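Q: Okay, next protein. This is Lysosomal cobalamin transport escort protein LMBD1 from Denticeps clupeoides. I've checked the sequence twice, so it should be correct. Can you predict the 3D structure?
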Amino acid sequence: MAPLLTESVLGWSIFALVLLVILAFCWVYIRKYQSHQDSEVISTITAICALAVALITSALLPVDIFLVSFMKYPNGTYKEWAANNETRGQIEDTVLYGYYTLYSIILFCVFFWIPFVYFYYEEKDDDNANKCLQVKNALKYTIGFIIVCAALLLIGAFVPLSPPPSQNATQWEKVQFLVEEFGNHSLAALSFSISSLTLIGMLAVITYTAYGMSVLPLNLIKGTRSIAYERLENTEDIEEVEHQIEKLKSKCEDGRPLSMRDRRNLQELEAKLQVLHRRGRHLEIVERNCCTKVGSALRPLKILLGVFFVLVALLFIVALFISNLDKALHSAGISSGFIIFGTNLTNPLNELLLALQPVFPLDYVLITVITVYFVFTSMAGIRNMGIWFFWMRLYKIRPRRTRPQALLFLCMILLLIVLHTSYMIYSLAPQYVMYGSQKYLLQVRSPLKFIFFLSFLPLSDQCTVTRSYLFLHKFWFFSTIYYFGNWAFIVVFLIGLIISCCKGKKSVIEGEVEVDDSDMSDDEYVH
């Protein structure tokens, strides 16, 4: 019992350290992108906490895999403290309740707190006098989200997971069946609500994560344009625009008014000249920045990192394609949610994780890196694309110039993406996500004696399945939609990769100065 207690204390210490690191990262990340002139304490705290919840939730999958693997020795037998089914059940329940707790927090953030803070900020007046009216209006708009959440919980509570009563049953028996289902499915209601949000997360993964996986490594490889060349080009553009403005103004030197077309062209040229002057100031600031010189010195490292990320992304796509192909060939089809209980085709990522198992803790490090990779490529995709609603761009994500509403949207999208990340990782390495590094002793009968040998292919009746797998496959129809979403993810990634390859180098101040810029001034950027 003492070793178990020591391991428990060590585990909690590591958890506390990881939590502090996550909170520190969230604070730095939000403060980096936050507009300091257009911000509010409540929106900043909400964004930091929501981002921290997203990262903590993404870290739960490696912990889940580690715990089911830690129950067994390398020889396939259960450890002394895990040999009892009751003890194993307690650990499994603890992990499951951890999922439900974090997912409940996500549900609370998505359907109440983030919408409330968003509308609270939108209702903010210039004089900021009537706080009660501001809260009242924000709650009024948030009620719609609460109604949707309540509807999902009710639908999930009454979705039958067991066969309904026969047609000959009385009305009372049918009502009693529904009441019992509701009583037994309080957790199923939460699962249904989270699975519904996961569908939205799947759309965000297809849009932002797929694009981020293609654009992040190629941007590292291609780098940015030369600052000196950009400043020279900007100076030439300024001279050309000033010449065009002087040419238009010369038409009215004799007192004749400009035509409507010329006045419109003059306004456009003056606006363009203002943008070019702002670009010149930004380029000058960047050229004097020490970080720019450090970045130039680290250019070879960025290229190597970009090549590595490209290879990782291609490995993920190949593994995802093989996994989906395996499901298409060997599952029972749509009616079963394309669920399979093993791997029939060689999956490179799954084999790599299994090969790393003998060297502790390389497989857990790799699965953690994969999870972090998904989160950070999603953040890169959102940062490059901005916040869109169909064909309309709502907000931009820019350092020191991002509006509070955009940060709230960013955190909400990341929360939804994290919900779908577990299924994506399961698709990449199905056997490993189901059983971790567990093995079992297989008994084979020969004519003379029983022979025991160690199997590396776990069986569901002799190995503990991760809680994540059970949670993901509670409703078969969601698994079916996730399966087709994986195909869409592959297609969008390939399209994004082609577009990223065709595009040239980015400007060193990409996205910082635009014609439709709604920021009041450049003071934040200068400071």
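A: Here is a summary of the prediction. The chain has 18 helices and four strands. Confidence is low (pLDDT under 50) at residues 446-458, 523-527.
Q: Noted. On to the next one.
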